[in-house]
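Fold it.
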Amino acid sequence: MRPLGVTLSAYFQFVRATLMATLALGILFVGSMASRLASVAEEGNGLQRFLSGFGHFLAMAFLIYALILIVLGIGLLMGQNWARSLAVVFSGLGILILLPRLFHHHPLSILLALFNLAVLIYLLLPQTRAYFDRKGSMEIKPA
């Protein structure tokens, strides 16, 4: 039986993936609007090409990150130890990235940082680590 905390941690990864995908789509939309605005100012200028290319690059990077988060959530639901390790790394990085925004008291940043901290602490608990170790050892059975 999978612990509730592992399930909630996996769902948090799905929420993060949804936020990243939404951000990527927003970047694509705003990037295309900005490049069109730049092209109106001057036909075929370098700024228009740069804005369009940079927007597509950022959007693709965020979409790839969202895909990684989805795979991570599925790995957590399946009890994979690599997913636990990767979730610890991503949650730690998430806290570090959100740290400067915490000083400006953005409610969403504070909420995401607290969720990242909760996931980080929970996945580092000995009981949780033991669950993932047991789950991994059950799958590898010598013939």
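The mean pLDDT is 86.
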